[in-house]
Amino acid sequence: MSVSLAALIAAAALNGGAQEFAATPAVQTVPAVPVAGVAAAQDQRFRLSISLSLNGAYVGDVPVEASLAGDASVEVARLVELLRPLVAPEVIDGLVARSAGAGMASTSVLSGPDLTLTFDQAALALSAQITADARALNRLSLIDATRQGGGARLTPPSNRAFGITVALNTQIEHEGFLNDLVREPAEVAIRGFGNVGGVDGLNLAFETGYREDGDFARRRTTLFYDDVPRAIRYALGDVDPETLGAYQAPISLAGLSIERLYQEIQPYRNVRPSGRGQLTLESASRVEVLVNGVVQQTLRLGPGRYDLRDFPFLDGYNDVQLVVEDDTGRREVSSISFFSDIELLEPGVSIFSASLGVQQESGGFFEDPEYGDDLVFSGFYQRGVTDALTLGAASQINPENALFAGQAAYATRFGVFGIQAALDINEDDDTEQALLLTWRLFGLSESGRQSGVQVDFEAVSEGFSPMLPTATTFNANEWEVDARYQTELPLGVFATLGAGYSRSRGPFDDQKRATLALSRSFGRFSLGLNLEHRDGGFSDESRIGLSISVPLGERMSARARYNSSRDEAVVELDRRAYDSLDEFGYRVALGTSEGGPLANADLEYFGNRFRARVTHDYSDADGFETQVTNAGVTFGIGWADGRLALGREADRGFVIVDPHPTLGGAPVFARSRSTFGDTARSGALGPALAPLQRPYAYDSIEVRVEDAPDGYDIGAGRIDVVPGAASGYVLPIGSAASNTVMGRLVQADGEPAALVGGVLKPVSGQEAVETSFFTNRTGRLVAQQVAPGRYQVFVFGSDTPVGEIEVPEDSAGMVDIGTLTYGGDTQ
User: For every residue of 246-308, which 3-state class applies, written as one string?
Assistant: First the structure.
């Protein structure tokens, strides 16, 4: 027999002094139950699921069988599952031996010299205490913690789900105050997914777009399946193969791919080495460039592939982050380096990619992609051989070109040494070569910041151009060397010193460069100074950059910066917006640049069913004034298990929070453990749509109901999930069986029937089911999750009903049944 934990808690909370109820229903008089019968009822055992704590810390929920007398037996398999990661193996072995193979065993039997189990009847909780020597020695595994949700019982996603995010954008260019208005065609960008079979099922990801002066265009469509335990993705359609090292070219194919993607399928096991300084944008995006934590510039870039060394204000000797937000409002933050980061893998760990298809040659978000006619192969394999050695190889092949590359990383006490070599073979030209040697030696400064040395040496032949005709490329440098040294100086100053030299070909001069970056915090103030000098190459110049940032609160900050290369001075005020209901954020920048004023404003609002954003850019350079205003709104639609909901976004997964009609329209609020407030609420437009933040990462959605009827039982009110690549969930809130029945049970002499259990057996009612009840020491009776209908009331130990009660069809919440009597006259 299953017993509601909530009902037991409510009964325990009412011990002593619960208020009386005035209403008294008519009940059938029955003979009194002998005292021996009551004692027998107290020996009746009930199956519960209660919390388990270890040395005071919550571990998870475990099934027990408990009696009203206060003893309990525990499900051994679940207990072992929860304790095994935290308790020494020999202690677990002793617990299993004491259970003697039984599925359920009492707390007294399972307790031993290093482990004590105690059942708290009042709190309905199980506690375990172990000695310090009994703790397990474990390797930290964020993957396991994420996958298991810290011991939470995970809810599987719906077997069928569909979600889209729609972004509508328009742009207006004008002069002065709305003079000479020119409105660009409005655009609609759509990202979405479909899923059949849940986490272990089949996924479809798609992107499409519509431009006001054109037609709907298919951007990309990919059908894929994830083998989660092995972190392997099998994909068919538009794919962007992963690359290895410095020389594989990023390409897009229409075809097949098989890849091990730890960073996506097991996101907290990121063993993927990053490539050199390249950025690929699939659609027009806003890009913020942060150098040493300070915003240096905000760019609007079109779709395409960018070599970050082309950015005139970056030389790669600093800590650089890019905050990229595309047309649909999706935001990603990437840390990049011009130094080729070559990483070691754990022994036996391998990553790989193999893709075959035709290469995409053109296409944007609002036009159909075009593909070549020839098949292209792109692939690599990398494996950790020992703790100190990792090897890898890569290739890309089409009918005209072939790239073959290899790399090795070796760790010593003097740092990590790496080598990458590549051959570029073209049917019409000589074979071209490239070689990259690296050295890394890192440590931590006293304040915890990374310090160390990085050195790169690279030599490339004149026509080295992977997957491109040699005739289209001329490498101006025969070889180059770059070095960077980071350290913490006295007085809390952190310094980065960089130097580089390039040996040039042809008519170009050799190039020398040097940079120095200094930063220091003075309480709430952070100051930065960047000095850079170039000599030779395309230009000779020296420049200076200054920055200061001041936090003005938890989410607000002010910044000022100066860059001599553009003679630019800017002051910014920034309020960060969280992804929560009725949140807003803004950024305002004022300054001058190259002979004219500039201003930027960015306002963003997070509503319940949409997100809106307006940006305005103003500049006046040498009397040429331009003003550009962008306005957009984003909303999402999610469908799962026949339920449809509208919210801010749905293309990364979602939870539909679905209130039952018996709540009478009371708003239901949902929030995620990864957000700072409520993320969605139900209302006139139906259920709430709570977006999920990341695939394959643990999340918990909790709900609260405002103005719910007194005594209304909403159910669990929480869902713990580890979504797949494309998952939708439905969380019902409330039900017809949401009433709490309360009354009083007394014996014929008027004395309370204390600590008695029984059941309500349905006589009528479409959704009525048998429901358990208990009384406390004053005879107060509590039964929860009771649906409308008529019920006969039985106490354990008797086959004769105490009486009959009715829960009205229009009831919602607390239902008072008055006093029931074991014998004598009706009360």
Answer: CCCCCCCEEEEEEEECHHHHCCCCCCCCCCCCEEEECCCEEEEEEECCEEEEEEEECCEEEEH
